[in-house]
Amino acid sequence: MTKRIALIGNPNCGKTTLFNRLTGLDQKTSNLPGTTVDSYQGKIKLNGEVVELIDLPGIYSLFTNSEYEHVVIRQLLAEGDQKIDGIIYILDASNLRRNLLLLSQVSELEIPATCVLTMNDTAARRQISVDYSKLSEEIGLNITPFNPRTDKNLSPIHNAISDLKVGLKLSFNAGFRERLSDFADGKIDRGISKETLLRYGSIDGVIQRAVSTKDKKKASNTLKIDRIVTHPIYGFFIFIFVMLALFQGVFTLAEKPMEWIENGFAFLRDQISTILPGGTMGNFVQNGLLSGLEGVVLFVPQIFILFFLIGILEDSGYMVRASFISDRIMRKLGLNGRSIIPLVGGFACAIPSIMATRTIRNKSERLITMLIVPLMSCSARLPVYILLISLIVPGNEFWGPLPAQTLLMTLAYFAGIFMAVIVAFGLKIFGKKGENSEFVLELPTYHPPRIQTVISQAWIKCKAFLNEAGKIIVIISMVLWALSSFGPEKAMQEAHLKATELSQQNNPDSTQIAQSLLLEASYAGHLGKWIEPAIAPLGYDWKTGIALISSFAAREVFVGTMSTLFQSNSDDEDVMGIRDKMQSQINPATGKPLYGIPYAVSLMLFYAFALQCVSTMAVLKKETHSWKWPILLFVGYGFIAYVSAWIAYNVLS
């Protein structure tokens, strides 16, 4: 049977870096049993035996009300296949007092363990000297000094894992395992403050005997930098600049790789068209299967780049400063400082941003953040906004000192932000009261990020997306293809006859007209006409209904769908041809433009609020392990979008 060894320690102690060094790329991510919290697992060979390493979330104590602490408790107390056979405890040499508190609690469980002492270089800079032999004697466990960032030789760690033992010298609480189990099951509350003081009393004695510190009046480089970076004024502007750079980085750096992916799939379609010319099978492979796969792979650059940049910020030490600076504002909305990165990333794409909420330890705060990320106007909404704004405002028009189109675009983005604030505040007030947020931060020293580790973690996130959410996206994309490609037999026959007649004419728009006829005759077209009475109060016709339905594959598909319906030769990037044809449409009932200001503003609000992205719903399902929240969000935001669009249309008509 494979031996299971857990890595345990405080946040920012080098635990995950050590895990990555030991396992390399032989890792997988999975949820801890019965939770939505991730753990990383990897296997190594040691003395001919396979050992499974588990990187548990970093915690400060076993007795707090965070979901992270509870899953660590459950893992440590597990039996059977989930039982922990040994522990590698990571101690930060520069902050031993706090680290030893958790060690003293874990020691009570009598699981064979060893200690790895990290951050020795940081301790040396702070003029902290640790007597390893004395410390080992005091805690009753072997200690191996090791720097996961720079030390190349892993043999000392392998030797330490081979020589695990039970250390009880910091243990003084009989029945600890039973009481910890009762706490995890909710049978007792967390009141242990007296016991914590007793533990610290014992720990202080260990520190006095094994650690010496020279007075150092001169501030370290980290403290000097933090005087600016965490300053209430300067720090805020630095934070805004870093967040804008992060957002722009995701948006800009992913542009070329996404273009290459699109070109690659276009090439595949061309090759398949020569192998499977025409017919249902060729159409399915090109526009059903390949479109679904493209819709999955196309997100990978954004996911990788977002998590790579977040990893750089985390590994360098800035991320906790960003959380610290934004926490005061976020807390008023029922969130905390760690929510800021996913929310900013949502302006690029909601999918990687929802995945980025894994850094939020508090369960309720993570859920609220996930629920409002889709209200951030992602890049997929941009083509829709451009088309609708160009419908109603000329490019050379100014409203005061600002270009009118720029102002409307800004208002469209702020509409989503405003609604996110309302939803978050409402969830905070009326939502289920969970545990109080414990936002404990340690400001680690600044140091160069370990690029190999950052790349490894970003790729793990990408694989998780491809393996889980990707399956759902492909299936739904194929369903949408079927709805758009098939329809009632009589209607499709008539459409095919008209399309054949058009193909015999020398009309440059014949292909687009034929596509429009076939789409109108399909089940998607019938569905668009079926929902027309429901969307008519918003100022939408059946063509807009079809575009709304097709937008569930991806919001930007709206422009391409309207292009097909209006027989325009424009592509998704050139909306002018579509705009001109839409502007020429007249409402027969009123004699006014069919697609005027009321229509455009109504539809912009609908797209700003509605959850029209199956990929986002798939990721929400994966992260919450339930279809409940995606469905509730789809219905709730759909209702908000409908009411807002109805008000806008009727006020402006």
Q: Which percent band covers the strand fraction?
A: 5-15%
Name the poorly predicted regions.
29-36, 567-574
Sheet with the most strands, sense and barrel status: 7 strands, mixed
Distance between the termini: 72 Å
Tell me the count of domains.
3
The side-by-side strand order for the widest beta sheet comes to: 2-3-4-1-5-6-8
Identify the CATH class of the largest domain.
Alpha Beta
What form results from the Cα inertia axes?
Answer: elongated
CATH architecture of the largest domain: 3-Layer(aba) Sandwich
Radius of gyration: 29 Å
Describe it for me?
It is a single chain. The protein has 653 residues and is α/β, with parallel strands linked by helices. The protein folds into 3 domains: 3-213, P-loop containing nucleotide triphosphate hydrolases (Rossmann fold, 3-Layer(aba) Sandwich); 234-394 and 451-464, no CATH class; 477-583, no CATH class. The protein is built from 31 helices and 11 strands. The strands form 3 sheets. A 7-stranded mixed sheet has the order 2-3-4-1-5-6-8, with helices on both faces. A two-stranded antiparallel ribbon has the order 7-9. Strands 10-11 form a two-stranded antiparallel sheet. Helix 21 packs antiparallel against helix 30 and helix 29 (597-609) packs antiparallel against helix 31. Mean pLDDT is 79; it is low at 29-36 and 567-574.
